[in-house]
Design goal:
By secondary structure, the protein is mainly alpha-helical. It is built from ten helices and no strands. The longest helix has 31 residues. The two termini are 24 Å apart. The relative contact order is 0.14. Keywords: Antibiotic resistance, Cell membrane, Membrane, Transmembrane, Transmembrane helix, Transport. This is Transport permease protein. It is a multi-pass membrane protein. It comes from Streptomyces xantholiticus. It is found in: Cell membrane; Membrane.
């Protein structure tokens, strides 16, 4: 009877797959530049084109920066769907399976690489925000809490993207997920207060995963009360992660029979 692999036996393939995905990302310069520059351009557009017309009770850059950070994370994580779909279409998965690399390790490599890419993008967006007037007043604990919440969101969304990549028949179809994720922060408190939206939109804007995440980041970075927002954000992320991991495992087995 063969013994089940230990923790090291599970981690080693995942780390190998992570290294492979990071190297592939470095070669795809166009995608890297787009994932970094698009959120920066959106921040500049909102702050300098629309900021003077939007009253949020504070400097608009301080209001919108947390929303742009979430938009950056959503856009960057959604690219995982395309990369997983390309692997499925290109036949490399069969080679990995012949080397006894499991589906969990393959998908975990994509998720970890996506998280690494997004950390660089987030740092760039945050740096540009500071240059144009973003002034967070968080303590060290506030920064750690904000970073932790955002990290959980990155991982959950990357796993969801991996599941979409397994479900999509082509990389082009998987790319459509990018547009959905880019849209989700707009009907939230990312760019304008929810109370300024039409009444029929309040229910959705108040009860979607992005809103408590943004409210958590905004409150933590500005040392303001956050109430239950971080717990709601973590609950949403935990639910998304649980469903995504389970669904991706089923889809991987179905697609690689």
């Amino acid at each position: 009877m063969s013994e089940s692999p230990g923790v090291a036996g599970l981690l080693a393939p995942a780390l190998t797959m992570t290294g492979r995905c990071v190297r592939l990302s470095r070669r795809d310069i166009d995608a890297v530049i787009t994932s970094m520059m698009l959120p920066v351009m959106l921040m500049l557009v909102f702050v300098y084109f629309f900021g003077g017309a939007i009253n949020t009770g504070t400097e608009y850059v301080n209001y919108v920066a947390p929303g742009i950070l979430v938009l950056c994370a959503a856009f960057g994580s959604s690219g995982t769907a395309v990369r997983v779909s390309e692997d499925m279409k290109g036949g490399i998965i069969d080679r990995f399976r012949s080397l006894d690399v499991g589906g969990t390790s393959i998908l975990a490599g994509h998720v970890v690489a996506s998280t690494v890419r997004n950390l660089f993008s987030t740092a760039l967006v945050l740096g540009v925000g500071v240059l144009i007037g973003f002034r967070p007043s968080a303590s060290a604990a506030g920064w750690l809490a904000a970073g932790g919440v955002l990290m959980v969101f990155l991982v959950a969304l990357s796993w969801l993207s991996a599941a979409v990549g397994l479900l999509a028949k082509t990389p082009e179809a998987a790319a459509g997920f990018t547009f959905f994720m880019m849209f989700l922060p707009y009907p939230s408190s990312a760019f304008v207060p929810i109370e300024t939206m039409p009444g029929w939109l309040h229910g959705f804007a108040d009860h979607q995963p992005v809103t408590p995440l943004i409210e958590s980041l905004r409150g933590l970075l500005h040392a303001q009360p956050v109430g239950s927002a971080p717990w709601l954000a973590l609950a949403w992320c935990g639910g998304i992660l649980t469903v995504a991991v389970g669904v991706s495992g089923v889809l991987f087995r179905v697609r690689t029979r």
